Amino acid sequence: MKSAIIAFAILAYVLATPEYTDEYMQVHDICQADARYRIDDLSVFIELETEKKPVSQVKFPSNFNAHMGCMYSNLGLFDKNGDIIIDIAADKLKTFFFNPALAPQIVTACGGIANESDDLDETSGLFYLCILDYFA
Quick one: signal sequence residues (predicted)? Predict the structure, then answer.
Protein backbone atom coordinates (compact mmCIF):
# COMPACT_ATOMS: atom_id res chain seq x y z
CA MET A 1 0.00 0.00 0.00
CA LYS A 2 2.80 2.38 0.92
CA SER A 3 4.57 1.79 -2.41
CA ALA A 4 1.30 2.43 -4.29
CA ILE A 5 0.95 5.80 -2.56
CA ILE A 6 4.55 6.69 -3.41
CA ALA A 7 4.05 5.63 -7.05
CA PHE A 8 0.89 7.74 -7.26
CA ALA A 9 2.69 10.75 -5.76
CA ILE A 10 5.52 10.44 -8.28
CA LEU A 11 3.06 10.10 -11.16
CA ALA A 12 1.11 13.16 -9.98
CA TYR A 13 4.34 15.15 -9.72
CA VAL A 14 5.40 14.19 -13.24
CA LEU A 15 1.98 14.95 -14.70
CA ALA A 16 1.86 18.33 -12.96
CA THR A 17 4.36 19.94 -15.28
CA PRO A 18 3.79 21.74 -18.55
CA GLU A 19 4.03 19.72 -21.75
CA TYR A 20 6.46 21.30 -24.20
CA THR A 21 5.73 20.92 -27.90
CA ASP A 22 8.42 20.17 -30.48
CA GLU A 23 7.98 23.68 -31.89
CA TYR A 24 8.51 25.22 -28.45
CA MET A 25 11.69 23.21 -27.91
CA GLN A 26 13.03 24.15 -31.37
CA VAL A 27 12.46 27.82 -30.59
CA HIS A 28 14.11 27.34 -27.21
CA ASP A 29 17.18 25.93 -28.97
CA ILE A 30 17.25 28.96 -31.30
CA CYS A 31 17.14 31.38 -28.37
CA GLN A 32 19.73 29.43 -26.39
CA ALA A 33 22.10 29.55 -29.39
CA ASP A 34 22.23 33.36 -29.21
CA ALA A 35 24.37 34.76 -26.36
CA ARG A 36 21.95 37.70 -25.87
CA TYR A 37 19.12 35.31 -24.98
CA ARG A 38 20.92 32.27 -23.60
CA ILE A 39 20.13 31.37 -20.02
CA ASP A 40 23.09 29.38 -18.76
CA ASP A 41 21.41 28.15 -15.60
CA LEU A 42 18.01 26.74 -16.58
CA SER A 43 17.19 25.93 -12.97
CA VAL A 44 15.07 29.08 -12.93
CA PHE A 45 12.49 27.20 -15.02
CA ILE A 46 12.68 24.09 -12.84
CA GLU A 47 12.12 26.20 -9.74
CA LEU A 48 9.15 28.02 -11.28
CA GLU A 49 7.47 25.30 -13.33
CA THR A 50 8.28 22.04 -11.57
CA GLU A 51 9.01 22.99 -7.97
CA LYS A 52 6.34 25.74 -8.10
CA LYS A 53 8.47 28.15 -6.06
CA PRO A 54 7.00 31.62 -5.56
CA VAL A 55 8.49 34.19 -7.94
CA SER A 56 9.84 36.13 -4.96
CA GLN A 57 12.04 33.13 -4.03
CA VAL A 58 13.60 32.66 -7.47
CA LYS A 59 16.78 34.36 -8.71
CA PHE A 60 16.19 35.49 -12.29
CA PRO A 61 19.04 35.94 -14.75
CA SER A 62 19.42 39.51 -16.00
CA ASN A 63 18.37 38.50 -19.52
CA PHE A 64 15.26 36.54 -18.48
CA ASN A 65 12.79 38.93 -20.12
CA ALA A 66 14.93 39.06 -23.27
CA HIS A 67 14.95 35.25 -23.40
CA MET A 68 11.17 35.16 -23.10
CA GLY A 69 10.93 37.88 -25.76
CA CYS A 70 13.01 35.71 -28.08
CA MET A 71 10.83 32.69 -27.33
CA TYR A 72 7.49 34.37 -27.86
CA SER A 73 8.64 36.35 -30.91
CA ASN A 74 9.92 33.20 -32.60
CA LEU A 75 6.68 31.41 -31.76
CA GLY A 76 4.83 34.20 -33.57
CA LEU A 77 2.86 35.36 -30.54
CA PHE A 78 3.14 39.11 -31.28
CA ASP A 79 1.47 41.32 -33.85
CA LYS A 80 3.32 44.16 -35.62
CA ASN A 81 2.58 46.47 -32.67
CA GLY A 82 4.14 44.08 -30.16
CA ASP A 83 0.82 42.97 -28.68
CA ILE A 84 0.12 39.34 -27.92
CA ILE A 85 -2.07 37.62 -30.52
CA ILE A 86 -4.51 35.84 -28.23
CA ASP A 87 -5.71 33.00 -30.48
CA ILE A 88 -2.19 32.07 -31.61
CA ALA A 89 -0.78 32.25 -28.08
CA ALA A 90 -3.66 30.16 -26.70
CA ASP A 91 -3.14 27.50 -29.36
CA LYS A 92 0.64 27.31 -29.02
CA LEU A 93 0.72 27.36 -25.22
CA LYS A 94 -2.36 25.26 -24.36
CA THR A 95 -0.28 22.18 -23.53
CA PHE A 96 1.27 24.10 -20.63
CA PHE A 97 -1.98 24.40 -18.73
CA PHE A 98 -3.62 21.92 -16.40
CA ASN A 99 -6.85 22.48 -18.38
CA PRO A 100 -5.93 23.27 -22.01
CA ALA A 101 -9.55 24.23 -22.75
CA LEU A 102 -9.05 27.31 -20.57
CA ALA A 103 -6.07 28.53 -22.63
CA PRO A 104 -8.04 31.29 -24.43
CA GLN A 105 -9.29 32.75 -21.14
CA ILE A 106 -5.87 32.51 -19.48
CA VAL A 107 -4.07 34.07 -22.42
CA THR A 108 -6.68 36.82 -22.72
CA ALA A 109 -6.35 37.76 -19.05
CA CYS A 110 -2.54 37.59 -19.04
CA GLY A 111 -2.22 39.25 -22.43
CA GLY A 112 -4.18 42.22 -21.13
CA ILE A 113 -1.81 42.62 -18.21
CA ALA A 114 1.35 42.09 -20.26
CA ASN A 115 0.29 44.35 -23.13
CA GLU A 116 0.33 47.33 -20.77
CA SER A 117 4.09 47.49 -21.32
CA ASP A 118 5.54 49.08 -24.45
CA ASP A 119 8.72 47.00 -24.21
CA LEU A 120 8.54 43.61 -25.99
CA ASP A 121 10.90 41.88 -23.56
CA GLU A 122 9.09 43.25 -20.53
CA THR A 123 5.75 42.24 -22.06
CA SER A 124 7.14 38.73 -22.57
CA GLY A 125 8.39 38.43 -18.99
CA LEU A 126 5.11 39.71 -17.55
CA PHE A 127 3.12 37.38 -19.78
CA TYR A 128 5.18 34.35 -18.75
CA LEU A 129 4.88 35.12 -15.05
CA CYS A 130 1.12 35.56 -15.40
CA ILE A 131 0.47 32.34 -17.34
CA LEU A 132 2.84 30.52 -14.97
CA ASP A 133 0.07 30.63 -12.34
CA TYR A 134 -1.97 28.29 -14.56
CA PHE A 135 0.74 25.81 -15.57
CA ALA A 136 0.08 22.14 -14.97
Answer: 1-16
